[in-house]
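Internal tracking record. Fields below are filled automatically when a chain is submitted to the structure queue. Please do not edit lines marked as system-generated. If the sequence contains nonstandard residues, flag them in the REMARKS field before resubmitting.
Queue: standard
Priority: normal
Entity type: single polypeptide chain
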Amino acid sequence: DGNATTAPAITDPSPVKPRPPAGKKYYQGKVLTNIILNDVGSDKQTYHLEIGVDEEVVYECGDTIGIIPKNRLDVVDRILELSAVPGSEELSTSKVTAPLRELLTFNLNICYLVGNTIKKYAAITGHAIPDVRMDLVDLLRIYPVAGADQFREVIKILLPISPRLYTVASSPSRHGNNEVHITVARDRFLSQDEQRYGLCSEFLGDQPVGSRLTFYVHREKNFKMPEATKDMIMIGPGTGIAPFRSFLAERDATGATGRNWLFFGERHFLTDFLYQTEIQAFVETGVLTNINLAFSRDQKNKVYVQDRMLANAAGLFEWMEGGAHVYISGTKAPMGKDVEASLLRIIAQEGHLSEEEAVVYLETMEKENRYQKDVY
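SYSTEM-GENERATED OUTPUT FOLLOWS
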């Protein structure tokens, strides 16, 4: 469901690939599928990526994978132009010595610099710079360096690119151990009045089929499926659906007997129902016992997953009393907080408990690993 993205193939200028840091098990993956899950007319871009690996990838449902993005080559070229330092010149950071072009492409964070880095840049260049976050390319354009030596100093204050974590959307039992799937929303924000995109979400969205990615598996101890006989309540609007696609596929493939209840929300039913055909198939085959959908912009008053939860308060509490595990996945604020507040309201209302007692009830569920969150 969706449209394949036809991104231009980007050739790397540097034959030298940086060595991944030691310690973690790194996998070399290849993009097998990259499609947009939203339909034409949506104001969102959510990608479904399937990454194939030649060896067995060891992961469980609920785990995340860490991907180290590359910086955009056109941005690196512009920085080199503004820096007056040749891209072939070897420079050292605290961790890596490499040609400047390679450092700027693979190693250094040049997007949306933190305030502290900007303060250091101001000290090096002598410019008075307001307390803002901006990209290195804008800094160099608006507050230029006074020659190559100053830029060499700037290189030393840049932080390394940090890996971005994505919750796995596939199931080892259903999709095999030679691939992992992820769900990625293209992160948009305005910077210097220009439309900018989150580094990794843009990088992943633009990956053509056949391109290579390096990733590692991050084991999530506190976001795990329950035993096969236990019931699950899954609340995952937007890209929060990712782990629940994984959970449901795993339960289907392994014949788990526990009941499953999904709450999913997005903006519009017609354009933003992520994984619609798969979810409908889970309903038809009975893998999904209950499903409640909230498409916030399809009616005059906005409706969210927490409104659907409150409308099903009695049923939800009955499942919780019967030992169901509750999962929340998606954005921490406001969604994660609003959903937790609704859960507490349901527990107090249906269990005839005070606010304090409802908090203790949820804390007890958390201690028993029956209440788990994957919020970001």
